[in-house]
Amino acid sequence: MDKVFEALASTPRRKILAYLSETELSAGDIASRFDMTKPSLSKHLKILEAAGLVKAEKRGQFIFYSLQGDSLANTLTSFVQQVCPVSTKLRKESKAIASAKASRSS
Fold first, then answer.
1. Residue 9: its pLDDT value, please?
2. CA-CA distance, 105 to 64, in Å (whole number)?
3. Residue ranges of the alpha helices (H) in the chain?
4. Taking phi first (over 0 means left), then psi (-120 to 50 degrees means alpha), and beta for anything else, what does residue 52 get?
5. Does residue 61 sit in helix, strand or coil?
6. CA distance 42 to 103
7. How far is CA 56 from CA 4, 30, 59, 83, 103, in A?
8. pTM (2 d.p.)
9. Which CATH fold topology does 2-94 show?
10. Distance of alpha carbon 62 from alpha carbon 59, whole angstroms
11. pLDDT tens string 2-54
């Protein structure tokens, strides 16, 4: 549980979780939404993965990240996103990304 709280203590990591709340994103898609180096972003993603909050799936040359399935950690994350003012806007953006993906594949 300490790893979960450590992961949630960082604003960039909470933002990443908000972006992943409605859809999966590639590492590149996530990186395009942040003003940080790729090694820094990679470190944040590894911490989220180690905490059991996200999972990574390699497809070809890309790595896609999504929220880990039902778990106490993600229940806690969902709660934090409900009370975090920054997350509301990012969750809406995540939902829009998911809708755009769905319309492209239809």
1. 87
2. 17
3. 2-8, 11-19, 27-31, 38-50, 72-83, 85-105
4. left
5. coil
6. 29
7. 17, 13, 10, 26, 24
8. 0.75
9. Arc Repressor Mutant, subunit A (1.10.10)
10. 5
11. 888 888 889 999 899 989 988 999 999 999 999 999 999 999 999 999 999 99
- Domain spans, the chain: 2-94
Structure tokens, 34: 């942040």
Question: What is d(CA 97, CA 32) in angstroms, rounded to the nearest whole number?
Answer: 13
State how far Cα 99 lies from the chain centre. Answer: 17
Measured distance CA(7)–CA(51) in Å, rounded = 7
Quickly tell me which residue has 């829009």 as its tokens. Answer: 96
Q: Are 13 and 7 in contact (CB under 8 A)?
A: yes
The pair of structure tokens assigned to 67 is 């929220």
Instruction: State the Cα–Cα distance between residues 40 and 81, nearest whole angstrom.
Output: 22
